[in-house]
Design goal:
Structural class: alpha+beta
Oligomer: single chain
Radius of gyration: 18 Å
Strand order of the largest sheet: 1-2
Distance between the termini: 20 Å
Strand content: 5-15%
Shape: extended
Length: 69
């Protein structure tokens, strides 16, 4: 394993450890309300979750995998 790959693997491992340490405190339970957040809109401007109150909302999380197959 080259030095760069070893460094990358170590950096990813550290990041995963930090995320795992932070997630339990912020974890939601079934039935909890989603925290309000704001994202860039595909139509320009910002979109805040609270502005969609009373509407059906689907939040899709997906992974961008740029590794060669």
């Amino acid at each position: 394993m080259t030095g760069w790959k070893r460094f990358s693997l170590h950096a990813v491992s550290c990041l995963m450890f930090l995320l795992a340490a932070a997630l339990p405190a912020a974890a939601l339970q079934v039935g909890d309300k989603a925290p309000d957040f704001e994202l860039d809109s595909t139509k320009g401007g910002k979109l805040k979750l609270s502005s969609l109150k009373g509407k059906n909302v689907l939040i899709n999380f997906y992974v961008l995998d740029f590794s060669p197959t």
